[in-house]
Design a protein that fits this description.
Strand order of the largest sheet of chain B: 2-4-5-7-6
Largest interface: A-B, 42 and 37 residues
Helix content of chain B: 10-25%
Shape of chain B: elongated
Order of helices and strands of chain A: HHHHHHHHHHEHHHHHHHH
Structural class of chain B: alpha+beta
Oligomer: heterodimer
Radius of gyration of chain A: 21 Å
Helix content of chain A: over 70%
Number of strands of chain B: 22
Strand content of chain B: 35-45%
Distance between the termini of chain B: 102 Å
Number of strands of chain A: 1
Shape of chain A: globular
Radius of gyration of chain B: 29 Å
Chain lengths: 443, 343
């Protein structure tokens, strides 16, 4: 039996993680997994000195919980989407441009609350059933991921920004965004195959390679666009309430939960892809439903992966659980209960913080020019990539940024960038990864 | 319908926070009260591999202790038996280090309760413990039965926990273990003390010679020599009640060499003597007039950094080798006999 005082210390560390996350979320583009990469490097150096890993783990849990909830702030106010926020960027930006940014924050938080409640109650309750589902689908992962890849490609659609005068022009306009999407998918796939098979970064940092890719594709490309194109944010109203139907909360919350859980459950699938699938599966419509679903989707994707790791399923999905598994394997239900308790209390702290931070950031962006924040953020994330992966990482970062700019320039879906992990993992599961890499001259 | 939609306010979200915190509190309570169900070793089957279990049983052999030569990680292993079967237990390096520091290594004969991940093969069952909190020694001090040494053979059984008091009569270093006899005047019993555990606390086993001690441990039948031995695990199991007065009596070289017959095979201490010669396994010391050889079974280079002319305080046994007299040091640990060096 673990002493109550020790358990409360664990919870305290989770709360500290949320507070650190609150500071980090003010930097648009910075992903929590990049920060964790540094934390792991430092921690692993002192591994032999540590008697109880649970303190560090709970700190990381708090960090991820904070990120899942609080990163709504930069997503909405500073428009720096990551792989999981691309799906809501437009509805939430509309709210922002209508002076209702805080309402968008509240809607996302409502989704987060639904996701947290479902997660902390349902996952521990149904972990045996989830384990069974996992065992059933395990041998079928290959074709499921293949089907997801097909769905992403087939669901790319023309955006109709303009209408060409000649037939050829009409054809071109119709196909521009689709082709740009396919090109993004193709280039991302090739980049993924290269970095999964023969990365150029220092050997001891290879587990951080994807950090440079994601920062380039989603953060740096957004920040560059923001620096050169961003308009002034209109005055914002903070009413402390938002109009929303119960049905929208239900549809958005449950839809996002399904998408997030699917993404947490399946290898290579990220929150954005999960949200896309769940949105179609539940026929979600309406901006409020979308924003709410994104809130629950993010929570389930990031935090749900932690809970699944601590259940009997013992799954490893995401940088946190994979990193943790280097030195720690959960064994008991007690550990699961402690982590769920930590998640619950850290979530409550994060929800209170988001209400305060939303107001604070609103004041900040009215005083500091958005471009200034974006330039500062771009310098920071570039520096992080350099510190993480040296100059070799900067090369990957530059290539990723260029690929990430394609969908922004041609208005295709940024989700195609996720082929960077989907395709190599899909190929690896199919057993032809080596042949493809060889054909590309990597071996 | 008036067209106005229902509203969710920040107060609603704060109420949701309270609900979430309450659920979190329930999980804290669950974590605090949850206990793993006890499993009988005989019931452990292959399909239980990699699951977390709790077992309770007696340590059925002396724990072994090894250090990984590359990573300097310590691992303690021992078998336990709960009456339904036997399984191997492996304490991870973290657990081993913690127990070694605390001096609470499960001893042979003790009843323990352990939690960990079980791995089952066709031939063996192994429990790996990765958390020091999952090692509980259920045996209490009162469980060691204080026994007169002469009665040991009469009450003895394999693994029985006993406690005896007496004087240490002889001590021999077997390399892998120390073995000594304890007598209370009416009987005599052998004590077997594994070197690895003896060295952990860096005490000098030779301090035991002639000392009055209380030794506790499990009894084990030594089939080869047909007698019962007491098997303590750590220094905590051996309490020195009193040491013989002046065991290392202060002598001068002149005194020893002047009446060698009087002092032969006694333990003595000489101080303020200078080093006159340094060999590979011996030193020659002098008080300015007389010279005396100091002999060691270990290389002289392991004694420390000193040079000819340095002064020593040294202790050992005054012995005779061939026609010459010498002091033979009684431990392989230099700190036990080179007590001080004056340069």
């Amino acid at each position: 039996m673990i002493e109550l005082s020790v358990m409360l210390m664990y919870i305290g560390f989770a709360v500290v993680g949320v507070l650190v996350s609150a500071v980090l979320c003010l930097l648009p583009g910075l992903h929590v997994y990049n920060v964790m990469g540094f934390a792991f490097l430092i921690y692993l150096a002192f591994l032999n000195e540590v008697q109880d890993h649970m303190y560090f783990i709970m700190f990381l849990v708090g960090l991820v919980v904070g990120y899942a909830i609080l990163f709504t702030i930069p997503t909405i106010y500073l428009s720096a989407p990551d792989d999981s926020t691309v799906w809501i960027i437009y509805p939430s930006q509309k709210y922002l441009m209508q002076g209702k940014g805080h309402e968008a924050v509240l809607l996302t938080t409502i989704g987060g609350v639904v996701g947290i409640l479902i997660m902390i109650i349902a996952i521990p309750m149904f972990m045996d059933q989830l384990k069974l589902i996992r065992q059933i689908i395990q041998p079928h992962m290959f074709w499921i991921i293949g089907a997801v890849v097909m769905f992403i490609l087939m669901s790319e659609f023309p955006k109709d920004f303009d209408r060409g005068k000649s037939k050829l022009k009409k054809l071109w306009v119709g196909w521009t965004t689709i082709l740009a999407g396919y090109l993004t998918f193709l280039l991302s796939s090739i980049l993924g195959i290269i970095i999964f098979n023969k990365t150029i970064v220092p050997v001891d940092r290879t587990f951080q390679t994807l950090g440079a890719v994601f920062i380039g594709m989603f953060a740096a490309s957004s920040l560059l666009v923001a620096i050169f194109t961003h308009k002034d944010i209109p005055p914002q109203q903070v009413t402390g309430k938002v109009e929303v139907k119960k049905e929208e909360i239900f549809r958005g919350g449950v839809g996002g939960t399904i998408g997030g859980l699917f993404a947490a459950f399946m290898p290579a699938i990220t929150a954005g892809v999960g949200a896309l699938l769940a949105g179609h599966a539940t026929a979600a419509k309406g901006e409020r439903t979308f924003i709410i679903s994104q809130g629950s989707n993010r929570v389930l994707y990031y935090v749900g992966a932690i809970v699944l790791f601590f259940t009997a399923i013992g799954m490893r999905k995401g940088a946190l659980t994979i990193g943790m598994n280097l030195f720690y394997t959960p064994e008991t239900k007690t550990e699961l209960f402690i982590v769920v308790a930590g998640i619950a209390i850290a979530s409550a702290v994060a929800i209170i913080l988001i209400l305060l931070l939303s107001r604070g950031v609103l004041k900040l962006i009215q005083k500091v020019r958005y471009q200034t924040i974006s330039v500062f953020a771009l310098i920071c994330v570039t520096l992080i990539v350099f510190l993480m992966l040296s100059w070799q990482g900067l090369i990957i970062y530059a290539v990723s940024t260029a690929i990430g700019l394609l969908p922004v320039v041609f208005h295709s879906r940024r989700m195609n960038c996720l082929a960077v992990i989907l395709v190599p993992i899909w190929l690896s599961m199919s057993g032809i990864s080596g042949d493809i890499a060889s054909a590309l001259g990597l071996f | 319908m008036n067209g106005k939609l229902p509203e969710v306010t920040e107060k609603h979200l704060l109420v949701a926070c309270v609900v979430i915190v309450l659920i979190g509190t329930v999980f804290i309570w669950l974590a605090y009260t949850s206990e793993t169900t006890l499993t009988k070793i005989g019931d452990i089957s292959e399909d239980m591999s990699f699951s977390h279990i709790k077992v309770r049983g007696k340590v059925s052999d002396f724990p072994s202790y090894s250090t990984d030569k590359y990573e300097q990680r310590t691992t303690i292993k021992f078998p336990i038996n709960d009456g339904t079967g036997t399984m191997n237990v492996k304490l991870s390096d973290v657990v081993s280090d913690a127990l070694l520091k605390a001096g609470t290594i499960p001893a042979y004969g003790q009843e323990v309760e352990l939690e960990g991940k079980v791995s089952v093969s066709e031939y063996s069952k192994t429990l790996t413990v990765i958390n020091p909190a999952y090692v509980k020694i259920l045996t209490k001090e009162d469980d060691y039965v204080l026994t007169n040494i002469s009665l040991v053979p009469a009450v003895a059984s394999e693994g029985k926990l006993i406690k005896v008091s007496g004087t240490v009569k002889s001590l021999s270093n077997l390399g892998f273990a120390y073995s000594f006899n304890v007598t209370d005047g009416y009987g005599e019993v052998n004590v077997f003390f594994q070197t690895t555990f003896a060295n952990i606390n860096a005490k000098n086993p030779y301090e035991l010679k002639g000392a009055n001690v209380t030794v506790k441990g499990a009894l084990k039948w030594y089939a080869q020599k047909s007698y019962w031995e007491i098997m303590p695990t750590t220094w905590n199991d051996i309490e020195i009640l009193s040491t013989p007065v002046e065991r290392y009596a202060l002598r001068s070289i002149g005194e020893l060499l002047g009446a060698p017959g009087t002092y032969l095979n006694t333990s003595c201490r000489i101080e303020n003597v200078s080093i006159a010669f340094i060999g590979t396994s011996n030193l020659t010391v002098t008080d300015g007039t007389n010279y005396l050889n100091i002999y060691s079974t270990v290389s002289i280079t392991s004694w420390g950094n000193f040079k000819v002319g340095d002064k020593l305080l040294i202790q050992g046994k005054f012995t005779k080798y061939g026609d010459a007299y010498e002091i033979k040091v009684e431990s392989s640990n230099p700190s036990h006999y080179i007590l001080e060096v004056y340069t």
